[in-house]
Design brief:
This protein has 505 residues and is mainly alpha-helical. The protein has 20 helices and no strands.
């Protein structure tokens, strides 16, 4: 009799989630408390996972072992190969003395990423707009329009790139001056930015390609392209900087070249797959009707990313007024927080494509099922991470800071203890947002998003000037999350998919 997995084998979802978190807790304990080496900590976590699978989920021992070996063969080995190769290259450059050349070249670049973040916001908008519309058309089996949506997005990306490149190349120096780039690195920053701007088409088209893969249910292919690009960038950096003595230009051109190769490969694979999709009728290259649908998704996404960048700049400015200890503590705490939030966001993006496909297929009742399933998944993650951060946050901080000061440690612990109980709240928002975005309800999505951002920024500024000090900044997060979550869930409840279910019943 085949084994059937039970998602809540012990006392419901909460108790099962706590038991499922044991391997993760073991991993963090070995790294942060025992200061164990990475492979030792990973092995301990793996053993814990096997024990939990067999003892709690009643997984046959033979199946548990075979699953472990299968995961190693198809997941672990490629990743380990990439990491080992990268470490080998690093050690080689250190031993040869060439690493210092690379380090000096990179050190001459500005660490201000605001301009790049703005450019990426436009690329992200094209990605989201294309993936949602393609997923809807794919679910509806409207393959002709789906192909047109892809080519229309390519045209849109090309036009957007042309405008951004003109701005970036023509106003390079004024833009760098505007963001207060130090005079001693202005020339190198200008050179790097100009080469980066020349590579914008590859950034855009690669993002569009990854969005299409996601819309079609393929998340593995973009990973392989990213892994190959990152690894090759290391080798090309070394070649251009140390062998050809190109300095900062070598770093920029290496990134440019690797992005180019990844983009060409990704776009080629996309169009090959699309060519195999059924449909004898040739699809038009461009459609104004489909462009409007894409822009309704893309423009709000661009605005969201742009305003988030601006909001983060304001928040960082407020935090910087409290000194280096608070800055260090926040930097460590936010990394742990982003680990969880990124997981929620990734799941929300997946729900967007799921929603779009089912709406396209006319299966509206499945949207609510997706919402419930999404909540179970994010809450199952929220509980163990909350417990871990509330009771073990001080220990985990040592992963990012070797010897934290009392101020830095207290800041990070306070930050995590204030935010982590509200993971249950913000995760529900991101699930609801995923459905709103997948359904194309961008107006309400933007209302919720901007409410969160504005509340967090305004309250952080106001509360930081009270007796709460820096703690007041952290208190702004839960308020913004809570109000925005109420709005997002309310908008989800008002969705036409819920009205369809009520009518059918």
């Amino acid at each position: 009799m085949p084994w059937v997995q039970q998602y809540a084998p012990v006392g419901g979802v909460v108790a099962s989630a706590c038991l499922a978190a044991i391997p993760l807790i073991i991993l963090f304990y070995m790294l942060a408390v025992r200061k164990a080496k990475g492979h030792v900590a990973a092995a301990a976590g793996l053993i814990g996972a096997l024990i939990v699978a067999v003892a709690v989920w009643n997984m046959p021992v033979s199946l548990a072992i075979s699953s472990t070996l299968n995961g190693a063969a198809f997941g672990l080995f490629p990743i380990v190969w990439i990491v080992i190769t990268a470490v080998w290259v690093y050690n080689m450059t250190v031993e040869s003395g060439e690493f210092e050349i690379i380090k000096d070249s990179l050190a001459r670049l500005t660490d201000d990423r605001r301009l790049q973040a703005l450019f990426i916001a436009f690329a992200f908008g094209c990605n989201i707009g294309c993936s949602v519309i393609v997923a809807q058309l794919f679910g509806a089996k409207e393959y002709r329009d789906m192909k047109t949506a892809v080519s229309t997005t390519m045209v849109l990306s090309a036009a957007t790139c042309a405008v951004l490149m003109a701005i970036g190349l023509g106003l390079c120096t004024p833009l760098l001056t505007l963001i207060h780039t130090p005079e001693n690195i202005l020339a190198d920053s200008r050179l790097y930015l100009r080469i980066y701007v020349l590579g914008l088409p590859f950034v855009f088209f690669y993002n569009v390609a990854t969005g299409i893969f996601s819309a079609l249910g393929d998340s593995k292919t973009p990973f392989w392209f990213l892994a190959a690009s990152s690894l090759s960038n290391i080798f090309v950096d070394i070649l251009f900087v140390t062998t050809f003595q190109m300095g900062v230009a070598g770093v920029a051109w290496a990134t440019f070249l690797c992005q180019c190769v990844s983009c060409v490969l990704a776009v080629t694979v996309v169009f090959r797959r699309l060519s195999k999709v059924e449909g004898a009728e040739k699809a038009p290259v461009f459609s104004g009707r489909i462009l409007q649908r894409i822009l309704r998704i893309a423009i709000p996404s661009v605005l969201q990313q742009s305003f988030i960048s601006v909001g983060n700049i304001i928040l960082q400015g407020v935090i910087n007024t409290f000194g280096s200890g608070v800055i260090a503590g926040y930097s460590a705490g936010v990394k742990l927080n982003n680990l969880v939030i990124t997981s929620f966001t990734t799941l929300g993006n997946g729900i967007s494509n799921y929603t779009a496909q089912n709406i396209g297929a006319g299966k509206l009742l499945r949207v609510k099922e997706g919402f419930r399933a999404g909540l179970k998944l994010v809450w199952a993650l929220s509980l163990p991470m909350m417990l871990l951060y509330v009771f073990g946050g001080g220990t985990l901080i040592h992963i990012f800071i070797d010897a934290p000061t009392e101020t830095a440690l207290q800041t990070a612990v306070t930050y995590l203890r204030i935010l982590s109980p509200f993971y249950f709240v913000v995760s529900a928002k991101l699930v609801a947002d995923g459905i709103l975005r997948g359904a194309g309800v961008m107006g309400k999505f933007m209302i919720s998003t901007f409410t969160d951002l504005i509340l967090r920024v305004v309250l952080a500024v106001v509360l930081s000037k009270t007796a709460l000090g820096a703690t007041g900044i952290w208190c702004a997060w839960p308020v913004g999350w809570s109000v925005a979550t109420v709005l997002s869930v309310l908008f989800y409840k008002q969705g036409y998919w819920n009205r369809m279910e009520e009518t059918s019943e």
